[in-house]
Amino acid sequence: MAEKKRTQVEDIDRSMYDFRYDDSDAEKLDAGLTPEIVREISERKGEPEWMLEHRLKSLEIYNSIDMSDWGPSIDGLDMENIVTYVKPNTDQKSDWESVPDNIKDTFDRLGIPEAERSYLAGVGAQYDSELVYHSMQDAAAKMGIVYSGIEEALHGEYADLIREKFMTLIPPTDHKFAALHGAVWSGGSFVYVPKGVKLDYPLQSYFRLNAKGAGQFEHTLIIVEDDADLHFIEGCSAPKYNVANLHAGAVELFVGKRAHLRYSTIENWSKNMYNLNTKRCRCEEEGEIEWISGSFGSHVGYLYPMSILAGRRAKASFTGITFAGRGQNLDTGCKVVLGAPETSASVETKGISKDGGIQTFRSSVVATPNAEGSRCTVSCQSLMLDNRSRSDTIPAMDIRCKNVNIGHEATIGRIGDDKVFYLMSRGISEEEAKTMIVNGFAEPISKELPLEYAVEMNNLIKLEMEGAIG
Amino acid sequence: MGTHALTIKRASAMPAPTWHFLKMNDTQIEIPEGLAVAPSVKVSEPWRARGAADEFDNALADAQEEWEKLHPEPTPQEREELEAFTRAEADATYGGTAQSNYQIGADALEEARSLAVAFEHGVGEEAAAYLRFAAGERVVVQTDPGQSVEAQVVVSAVPDALSVAAIDVVAGRNSSVSLSIVVDSPDVPASAGASGFAGTTVRVFADADARVSIVRTQTLDLGFTDIDDMGLFAHDRARIDVRQTVLGAGSTFTGLAGDLRGDSANIVVDTRYLGHADQEHDFNYVLRHHGTRTECNLGANGVLAGKSSKTLRGTIDLIRGAKGAQGSENETVLLVDEGVKNKTVPVILCNEDDVAGNHGATIGHIREEQLLYLQSRGLSKDDAERMFVGAMIEQAAIDAPDEESRAGVLRLGETVIPGFAELFEEEA
To answer: What is the pLDDT of residues A184-195, one digit of tens each?
Structure first.
């Protein structure tokens, strides 16, 4: 039997992200992780005492917890070599002209200022460990919305609120890298949307890790009060180095009664990145969280945004795509807790693996005894583009309530010959047919993204077809 | 002399684990101290020990030779090229793809190129070894090419004892074996509150074009613990059907592992279970596709009532080279009462692109329209819920392959629904 020619899907073109600037003028702490380093980070930030205690306690927890044994290997990550704090040679600015040229140029090339001008209500830009730019339109500020650096907010009128919420959804005991985050977190955003306020345009935070061998540990805390509405976009990238970089951020989202939050992420870290990020949302009565998630970059990824539906009729949806290419092991998915009556959740994910890449969909759906009348559907599809790659699906369901409706379905396969044949019989070339099929596979996700991000995603997945099947 | 207390940790472990907080990755089996080892296994004549004790191992060794001829080891030159490629890959991809422990283990298993090493037991090697030890003499059912046989093994559990059968089925080319396994505690009065252990460990070798059908019916009293272990090997075009009916016992551990090694091999598993009272059921299935165009179908249907709980781990592994393979897994769980707990983790592992794998699970209460219909026929909600419990037992009685199995189902049905046996006989 003749060898079948395979669909050739090019790896993601990262050249637009793979540029770097000299970081010799940045202030760096020593590599490794010690109480002295943690104290120094806290001191440099002039933090309240409770935060220093929190950091030191987290460090103790970090040292006492083993790394998980079920996911991708992190043997290539040696914390002794990771610089946990790198301060760029600037303070936070609120106009791009004041930002140093090399940093401004970085964000220009990533299209952030342009996006801000065209469709965003506010932007936060983090470069290594610190925010370098933060700005929000006056109209949003007049509505009472707060969008600032979280460290800045720790000293302002929301200090008590931040203390009340900080790392309560993601306690340092949750896992080893949540503890690490608790010890060395730096930068990140704080968003507060008052009751009844609905923002028509998104806010966006962009995280850029420039320094070699560094870690980024930003903390995002968003509180959307009752009846309010927000769309928040997060983007991230880094140049590629030949040593490990680490991202262990944390995102804590609180959605009030009847409030709505859409949280969109395009993750495109470089292939030397260990992305061990944690995201969690708690929804009150009739509150709704929508996660849109694209995972394209990183050498290793562990990412499972979690929705805790704590109030009656709270809703969650998770729409995600993961593309694992050469040298990547991306373990992604989501967690859902149906913790109150009549809650509902839907999960739809797509995974593509090629050229030796490994992508794993991992999920958990837990229905507590309180989840009377709740429902959840999980749908997961994986596409294998060659037989050097790997695609695994590990969904778990723990149901402890009688009157619930839980459905799960998953499929794994390759581009079907019959589909290609059908399209060819309609006069479409084979290459075009395959392109259409792969694009169609990703389409349910890309259509949920803001237009500019959908375009970016389409640019990321550049398709090149050749040859014929069979 | 009785048994020593023993805890078998990480029994029935799924190959690719997930978060530990879910407590689903594996289970633990506690063997109490002081159980007598009871000779309570009855084998239908004339098939007892028809085959020699090493029949299974010999068949696997023959298959190994055959397999090696078809899958020769790489030549030194090919190996060198492969290693050079791996090194180049590692240099280009930041040390190579950061495989997880189970991914490394899966590759190592394939590199071992040994059918015996790859042969697995559903409950894990430690638990299976214990069952083999407790069973003593092995029951071997063996067929010559083209032959057709039926056999039955009855394990009658007795209180304060360990009653175990170790069974090998070695089906020759183009032969057929039908095996019924009955695990019951017929002589224990319902009110006695007796406890004990029962179990079976079964190895199946189905040679090319063989057909093997196993029906296991378990109807132990609630004081008992049952361990149902199976390991299956399917050669070219062989088909193995397994039906497991799990109705009784306070704790059950059901494990099945299958190696679809031959091209176009087929394994079908049909599991039916009822959870009532405080029963705890644990199921683990691992089906590994090696051969081309192999097919597996794993179906599980259950009803959980009372305060019962159940965990089901089902793994379909589509291994590189299994071109044209299809794996399918489907589970339906009906939750009848408050207080039931259901855990399900249907896994597909895949490193071959030319395959189709799918799984589905539906977990919930009686559908609204079903309930409305039944209520319109005069049934209360509670009656309707009980009806589904009765239906599960009734179906088991209808499908029972022999009198012993049916008697066990009716006896157990009577303890769950008083008057069940009489009603069933009337309807029949």
So the answer is: 999 999 999 999
| Partner residues linked to A381 by β-bridges | A350, A411
**Residue A443, in any domain of the structure:** no
Residue A391: which of B98, B346, B350 has the nearest Cβ? B350
**DSSP string covering B345-412:** EEEEEE--SSEEEEEEEEEES--HHHHHHHHHTT--HHHHHHHHHHHHHHHHHHH-SSHHHHHHHHHH
ipTM of the shown complex: 0.94
Nearest of A292, A83, A351, A140 to residue B348 by alpha carbon: A351
CB distance B343–A382 less than 8 Å? no
Residue B24: list chain A partners with CB under 8 A: 396, 398
Q: Where are the domains of chain B?
A: 34-58+116-375
Q: Chain B window 353-382: which residues touch A at a Cβ cutoff of 8 Å?
A: 353-365
Secondary structure of A396-440 in HEC code, one letter for each residue:
EEEECCCCEEEEEEEEEECCCHHHHHHHHHCCCCHHHHHHHHHHH
Backbone φ and ψ of B159, nearest 5°: -60, 150
pTM over 0.95: no
**Which residues does chain A have within 8 Å of residue B348's beta carbon, measured at their own beta carbons?**
392-393, 410, 412
Read off the pLDDT of residues A156-183 as tens digits, 9 standing for 90 and up. 999 999 999 999 999 999 999 999 999 9
The B residues from 317 to 356 touching A (CB cutoff 8 Å) are 318, 320, 333, 335-356
CA nearest to B367 within chain A: A405
* A246 falls within a domain: yes
The whole-chain average pLDDT of chain A stands at 87
Contacts B351 to A, Cβ<8 Å: 387, 389-391
DSSP A80: G
Question: B46 preceded by cis ω (within 30°)?
Answer: yes
- Residue A260's nearest CA partner among A289, A296, A219 is A289
Determine whether the interchain pair A409/B360 forms a contact, defined as Cβ–Cβ distance below 8 Å. yes
Could you report the per-residue pLDDT of A12-61, keeping only the tens digit for each? 556 666 677 777 777 777 777 899 999 999 999 999 999 999 999 999 99
- Closest Cβ opposite residue B364 in set A68, A364, A404: A404
In a domain, A446, yes or no: no
Instruction: Report the alpha-carbon distance of residue A94 to residue B385 in Å, rounded.
Output: 64
Cβ pair A358:B97 closer than 8 A: yes
As a whole number, mean pLDDT of residues B16-29 equals 97
- Residue range(s) defining the domain that contains residue A229: 27-430
Size of interface A-B (CB pairs under 8 A): 194
Q: How many domains does chain A have?
A: 1
Alpha carbon distance A72, A127 (integer Å): 27
Q: Which residues of A touch B315 (CB under 8 A)?
A: none
CA distances from A139 to A197, A254, A260 (A): 12, 23, 20
Assigned domain for A108 exists? yes
Q: Which residue has the higher pLDDT, A267 or A13?
A: A267
Q: What is the DSSP secondary-structure string of B176-240?
A: EEEEEEEEE-TTS-TTS---EEEEEEEEEEE-TT-EEEEEEEEE--TTEEEEEEEEEEE-TT-EE
